[in-house]
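Q: What structure does this chain adopt?
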Amino acid sequence: MGEGTDTSRRNFLRGRYDTPSHRVRPPGTTPASLDACTGCGRCADACPMHIIRLISDRPALDFSVAECTFCGQCAELCPEPVFTGRLRYFPHVVMIGESCLARNRTDCQACRDVCPTEAIRFRPRAGGPFSPELSDEACTGCGACLSVCPVAAIGIREVEWERAHV
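A:
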């Protein structure tokens, strides 16, 4: 595994090793603004949800622990001009994969129950449990659903630049 590889326990047990190019940046940051980061770790210390990790001296989010509440404490304590964008949105939304229990005829709605914006809804399906549907417009990308999915069927998908920064 190379430098900067995410080796969190959850990813290790799943056999996932995310490289720095696939990191989720804190809200309000851009790849260019991260160049100003000195790796001091104040953002990680300030995060009340404890989801900010420094990987190769750059902040990245770990949604396997909890979700981002968009509190802005990371931006408030950062001494550098790293948090230059909007703090309420991510340039991604979640996606529900085919390994989802509900899509495989097992009743589960854990993601719906924790979604703060009700972006995940379940539609009735004849002869089986309800089927999940995601509203890209309502999803903030906060990651709440990622940490509760028992089979890790939820991932992250980039959205077009215009929608992410409207």
